[in-house]
Every structure is written in structure tokens, then in C-alpha cells.
Amino acid sequence: MMDSDEPSSTPVAAVTAQFTKLQRAYQQTLDRWTPHMLNRWLGTAGLLAVFMLRIVLSQGWYIDAHAIYLLNLLLAFLQPKFDPSIQDDLAADEIEEGGEMEPELPSTRDDEFRPFVRRLPEWQFWLSATRATVLSIFCTTSEVFDVPVYWPILVCYFFVLFALTMRRQIQHMIKYKYVPFDIGRKTRYGNAAAK
Helix or strand or coil: residue 10? Predict the structure, then answer.
């Protein structure tokens, strides 16, 4: 007879256990990398360099949406989580319907501090960019993705798309007076751990 204390030895249970073990190891690795922002981004830049080198050395015409996807990630990183233009439209609709408008958040420099909350957090931006780069490197190993194109058109398309979307994003930043970076604005009071 089988004891009920024995773990099931079916192949499905063994595969599930191995998959769970791999997931845990992957998550532990990501958790260890979390506080090392500069090193993470340097690693991703290195992967991008390997990707570019792979394209040059293979002399292929690899079409993947890598650059466009990274541009999309950058735009989501620069946008606020709660879009002020949508909030303005909702407030105008409430006033037209005769409803009461909710109290506004502070809007002047002397009002309460409101931190900038991104639509795409830095960690997710890095993780998505790194995964896309690794996938792109993998795609360069197969000739299925080696479709001949006239590359100057793709390069021009990317730069035009980048210029137009960044222009729109910068105009949005100016209109709603927000800066997605806190470089140089944060007050530092010295080493608090030394006290």
C-alpha cells in the first residue's frame, strides 16, 4: 500500500516542482539585483552592445520591434501615472453636469509636496528592456527573422517617431509643469548614518 505521506512521484508533479524551483531562483536573483540600479543599467547597456555587435557581425537585416518597443517603454517611464489632462477633462464634465468638483490637489510651489509617480516604474522599465534585449539577441540566431529591408528607411522612421513623440511628451511636461526626474532637486543633509 502507498502511504499518504509520500509525495506523488508522477512526472507532472516532478516538472511542476522543478519549474517552481526555477521560478524561486529567478525571483531571488532579481531581488538581489534590485538595489543596484547603476549596475543593472550597465548590464542592459552591455546586452544592447552585444545585440548591435551581433547584427554587425552576422551582416543580417534583422527586423524586430526592439527600438520601437524601447521607445514605448521610455515614453511610459516619462509619463505620470495619473494624467493631468484626463483629470482636467473629467473635472470639466462634472461641472457641465452640475455636479460638485472634488477638491484639487496642491498646484503651486508653496503647497504640499506631491512626488512624481510614473506610469512605468524604473524597475519594470529595466526588466522589460532587458528581457526585450535578450529576446532580440536570441532572434538574431535564427534566419527566420532575417528579412531583407532597406535599412535607412527604418532608421529615419525611428528618428522621426522619436522626435515627434518626445516633442509631444515635452509639451505635456511644460503644460502641466512636471519633471519626471529628481536630479538636483532633492535636498541632501549629509550622511545620516554617521550620526
Answer: coil
Which amino acid appears at position 58 of this protein? S
Q: What is the pLDDT of residues 165-175, one digit of tens each?
A: 889 888 888 88
The DSSP string of 130-169 is HHHHHHHHHHTTSGGGB----HHHHHHHHHHHHHHHHHHH
The residue whose grid cell reads 552591455 is: 46
With b for 16 or more beta-carbon neighbours within 10 A and e for fewer, the 33-66 pattern comes to beeeeeebeeebeebbeebeebbeeeeeebeeeb
First to last CA, the chain: 67
- In sequence order, what are the beta bridge partners of 146? 62
8 Å CB contact between 43 and 130? yes
| Per-residue pLDDT, 75 | 86
What residue ranges do the domains of the chain occupy? 17-62+120-145
Integer Cα distance of 114 and 116 in angstroms = 7
Q: If you compute the radius of gyration of the chain from its CA atoms, what whole number of angstroms results?
A: 24
Q: How far is CA 46 from CA 39, 49, 53, 108, 137, in A?
A: 10, 5, 10, 42, 12
Which position has the higher pLDDT, 58 or 39? Answer: 39
